[in-house]
Amino acid sequence: MLFKLQEGDNSIGLEPLQFKDFSSFGQVEKDLENLIANNILDVLFEDSKLMPIFQERQYQAEADIYALNEKGELVIFELKRSSAKNDAVQQALRYAQDAGQWTYQKLEGKLKKYTSQDVTLSEAHQEAFNLEHPLEPKEFNNKQHLIIIGSAADNSLMSSVDYWKNSGLSIDFLPYRIYEIEGQKYFEFFAPPYDNHKNPSDIKGVLFDTNKSYNSNSIWQMIENSQLASYGDAKRFVAHVHIGDTVFFSHKGYGIIAAAKVKGVLQKPSDNTWYRDVEFLTKIPNRNEPIKSMPFSKVTEFTEKSFFWARTIKVPYLSKNEADDLVEELKKYLA
Fold first, then answer.
1. 83-115 pLDDT tens trace
2. Taking a C-beta distance cutoff of 8 angstroms, is the pair 260, 283 a contact?
């Protein structure tokens, strides 16, 4: 809940602000789905480790978003833009029941359709979670978890979720609110367990993917132009780093190959490419020389953090001090 502070002569009072949901602004449920789907892993659940494998198709009896966790269990998101119908949870439970019957082959087919990549599910899952060994096909989808996202004002929906949760089902409700303040709209979302988000004003360290899987030349476009860039559907990720942040160039198959300080505002030269100017803090790679790197295993060992390597931004973020220490260690590997 958002409160306005009312300052008096000798005291401070609280004035609750009215909140709304998506239906208040004429948005359809698909708008909420796309908002959540595009931001669920890098903004709303910035430290979560989930591998999306499918998003709902229009006019199909499916949940909105399907993802896998490290154990290969299916996490199913069902989104409700406003007050849901009485059978909303029962509908979501039917989706979960149907998805519980999906075979390894069906999950793999959905992943390929979602990512447009010809890769096995086991390989993609192993890479995403940096597993020493891939899961066996029989280890996938042995359990399902259902997450319902809806308006914080929908008490009926919350009560239904609580009923099934108390009955032993793996189900949770995540509320959202929308505020309109001086003509601007604000989206409030509650991420478990403690709604833990890094303060956007804090300087941070970010491991950032070089796009090698899609374009092996992307790294040289960035290096030779002193830029941090992202492309296509992933272009939004470069907006999540800010001036003063330290970025580490994560090159698939190698490791961390360079570090730089972000110094430029977000640039959008085309619909396909966004970038920020950077200043390198380590030796700059040369396309005519063998690439030197700090292996991913050493990055994990040195930082004592388990990164989720499947994203463009490899969460979790590093604090400023952690980033500074990693820069110094990286210099040793690149020397």
1. 656 678 888 899 999 999 999 999 999 998 887
2. no
Q: Shortest CA distance to 44 belongs to which of 89, 74, 84, 79?
A: 79
Give yes or no: residues 154 and 209 share one domain.
Answer: no
Domain coverage including residue 323: 204-334
Q: Count CA atoms closer than 13 A to 327's CA, side-chain side.
A: 20
How far is the C-alpha of 22 from the C-alpha of 178, rounded, in Å?
7
Alpha-carbon distance of 288 to 123, in angstroms, equals 31
* pLDDT tens per residue, range 252-303: 999 999 999 999 899 999 989 999 999 999 999 999 999 999 999 999 999 9
Q: What are phi and psi of 108, to 5 degrees?
A: -65, -40
Q: Are residues 103 and 252 in the same domain?
A: no
**Domain contains 43:** yes
What is the distance between the alpha carbons of residues 37 and 64, in angstroms, rounded to a whole number?
Answer: 9
- Same domain for 178 and 44, yes or no, is yes
Of 145, 161, 189, the last residue of a domain is: 189
Separation of alpha carbons 121 and 157, rounded Å = 34
The dihedral through the CA atoms of 35, 36, 38, 41 has a sign that is: positive
Q: Is residue 12 included in any domain, yes or no?
A: no
In angstroms, the CA 54 to CA 98 distance is 14
Predicted TM-score of the model (pTM) = 0.71
Task: Specify the pairing of strand 144-151 against strand 74-79.
Answer: parallel
User: H or E segment at 290?
Assistant: none
Q: Which of 159, 189, 219 is the last residue of a domain?
A: 189
- CATH number assigned to the domain comprising residue 57: 3.40.1350.10
Is residue 118 assigned to a domain?
Answer: yes
Angle at 55 between CA 49 and CA 56, to 5 degrees: 145
Containing 131, the helix (H) or strand (E) segment is none
Half-sphere exposure of 55 (CA within 13 A, CB side): 14
